[in-house]
Amino acid sequence: MTTPRTFRIAAIPADGIGKEVVAAGRQVLDALAADSTGGTDAFALDWQEFDWGCEYYARTGKMMADDGLDQLKDFDAIYFGAVGWPTVPDDVSLWGLRLRICQNFDQWANVRPVHFLPGVISPLRKADDTELDWVVVRENSEGEYAGLGGRNLSGRGPGGEVAVQSSLFTEVGCERIIRFAFDLARTRTRRKVSSVTKSNAQQYGMVLWDDVFKRVAAEYPDVETESVLVDAMSAKFVLRPEDLSVVVASNLNADILSDLGSALAGSLGLAASANLNPERRFPSMFEPVHGSAPDIAGQGLANPIGAVGSAALMLEHFGLPDQAARLNKAIEKTTAAGVLTRDVGGSATTDEVTKTLIDALTP
Ligand code: ATP
Ligand code: MG
User: Fold this and answer.
1) CA-to-CA distance for 329 and 323, rounded, in angstroms?
2) Which residue, 180, 258, 345, 359, is most buried by CB atoms nearer than 10 A?
3) Domain range holding 237?
4) Domain of residue 3, CATH code
5) pTM of the predicted model, to two decimals?
């Protein structure tokens, strides 16, 4: 019998349904770990939970501890719920916790898979029931979310207050995310990368991106490529998604496209994501794409599948692809059996889906 590899994970459930889905994900992961003993890829998890978020803010005036990053830096990964609550301004909660972690731990690659699940009705599912499966790779460190600009600038425009919001594109930033997308494409059945910009209207940063894309593409002759404008890509997501494999885009464009992708798959509640520091100098962070959903929080209605899918991405990051596949298989068995929360047309509770997922781990 092999000794299990132990991974230290920082759990940050934070706000609203983040708490419910992180609790669910932990239960499923613990069940999987317990069942892995004896196998060649046996693993164990050592959890530490942090109570940061909007309630912590109400008590302390801070979204996380002052030395929070220091407390997190030696974990193998961060398992995150969702941040935000109506009592705290969105920019305060987001920048005070989630983006603070993303930026300081240089999690520059955000991976968001989109795929259809059996038993889930998608607005896109075609008559022939084609299996669709693509990944949005989002630049997660610069671009439109670089925070550059200001308000109360005068002297331009027709009058009134003037605000400028600039984007930042660096050659290194573009190159590393584009290269990441090509390397990911090589691991997939369909070796194709679609690059998305709006370079007909934004003539500096997006054109730099396009230039870097052409240069990097030349090093991957085995990977098919295309460059598509973001407006055209939005249409393509709906009309020809079978033509996609890896879609790489800037921070804002990929943010919008991945929400579109998860809605097309059937619900925001199904969508998983990984914020990666590919150099592994800092922990990476795994979280569902959805937010804290105050409208349904605390009612047992949250779909835990996005969080559980994010846990599968975490296991892949740990080098446990077979365990990740077991988790994804359990998700498919659960949805195929019709055990669905309300957002995907069912009436099961978060707990019922979680229990079914755990049962589905054993073949
Ligand atoms: P954020 O600003 O944090 O991205 P948001 O305002 O975009 O959040 P979300 O909280 O992500 O909104 O979700 C929008 C709506 O989708 C929710 O109000 C909720 O009804 C539904 N929803 C999101 N996630 C889930 C889930 N896991 N299970 C069920 N419904 C969900
Ligand atoms: Mg949102």
Assistant:
1) 10
2) 258
3) 122-141+167-265
4) 3.40.718.10
5) 0.94
